[in-house]
């Protein structure tokens, strides 16, 4: 027992000696946690919702939200104080998530996140990361995002509660600080004082963000009714086939969307010298072969991504800028440009090499045939996001459809995806008679998990991809184009701001190429530039107006006109 008591006595002495050390460690840890909580809340409040605004100067601003909540908790009793602080912190955590989403959507799609429409972008986003950098990275990113979305509101609520307890313990000092900072905030807001150039000292951005998203939700919920009224107007819905597209009878019409081919490609100083040279050389080559061309601009309904929104906008004649409108459209009986061709006697088809699974929306467009990754017969390598080179896509159209004898004229809508981000792998052209099943491209691609080009090279790789597709289109027309071939090619949207530049327009070039001069004569009143390159002052139309302008130019009569009424009788 004496030995036992001796050990107990020694332990007690060590514990009493360690107690001050543990107390000091707890105090240090507590102060560190308080500082971290303060920084956590400050960064959350002052962080911008655009990457372009991200700077150290943002973190020296005075957030009005912090002053209001602090003043409120100082005057509330204990239990009510907690019921204010914890929800306020959780709400701030949710708003931080919205800021992150806004940053991502602005960087890619040049607009803020829409909580009503944009949940549907999660799947395409996952697939894009999967095909760009691999399944493991895509799953890891998805798991990390889910964890952050759960953790941020919880951690922010705990941080605000901790700061609330600190404020109440030092009530007098906190009240004085709030009064002083509130006065400074009001004066700074009134006088426009800046923390650093371009960054106001008085901050209210988080409250403004909450208001903007609340208003956005209200507007988005009303959009279905707005869209229904717009969709009810259709000048060509009842036009009989005999009065449809009479100016293109006997012509094969190829409508090709060039991925990420925006106005920046032909005007941005980093791309224009080389891309314009390709367009000008193509104009000369086509002219020598008897082809003419006219070019202008359309304003796309999307930017940075969401190609299907642009496709549906052009084909339907309606402005499709969100997923709700797209779903409503594709479940309707709207008269599309492809249906106009089909009813007027053309065989209609689409070639979509990036579609790798069932595409139920295809039935809405009225195609006679859908070609996609599963039935195009490609045996070559993948080029990052692009499942196959544009040359193979065009060659398959020619081989399987246009080279057939005794056929009807063809109207083909094609997606050319070699210029799709991440521009990590660009094919090289081969002789058209050597394309075959695509195995000729072996050794050129980097596979479906190709990495993004380095930041110093990505713009150059984007430019090269556009040059590749434009050269391929010109070469296709020189090789296979006839007097009965009409090519319409355009961009679907501008690339992301990191490529197009901040504040770039949503304009995309559009060009009509034909050997028959009568085709181009029909659009002579459009004011478009001769050649493949639109002029800087070329007309700019909303993409949604193209359907009706095109139908009217090529002999279609709106259903309400006397000519259409007579044809019904």
TrEMBL record:
<protein>
    <submittedName>
        <fullName>Sulfatase</fullName>
    </submittedName>
</protein>
<feature type="transmembrane region" description="Helical">
    <location>
        <begin position="173"/>
        <end position="193"/>
    </location>
</feature>
<keyword id="KW-0472">Membrane</keyword>
<feature type="transmembrane region" description="Helical">
    <location>
        <begin position="59"/>
        <end position="76"/>
    </location>
</feature>
<keyword id="KW-0812">Transmembrane</keyword>
<feature type="region of interest" description="Disordered">
    <location>
        <begin position="1"/>
        <end position="23"/>
    </location>
</feature>
<dbReference type="InterPro" id="IPR017850">
    <property type="entry name" value="Alkaline_phosphatase_core_sf"/>
</dbReference>
<feature type="transmembrane region" description="Helical">
    <location>
        <begin position="28"/>
        <end position="47"/>
    </location>
</feature>
<feature type="transmembrane region" description="Helical">
    <location>
        <begin position="137"/>
        <end position="161"/>
    </location>
</feature>
<feature type="transmembrane region" description="Helical">
    <location>
        <begin position="83"/>
        <end position="101"/>
    </location>
</feature>
<keyword id="KW-1133">Transmembrane helix</keyword>
<feature type="compositionally biased region" description="Basic and acidic residues">
    <location>
        <begin position="11"/>
        <end position="23"/>
    </location>
</feature>
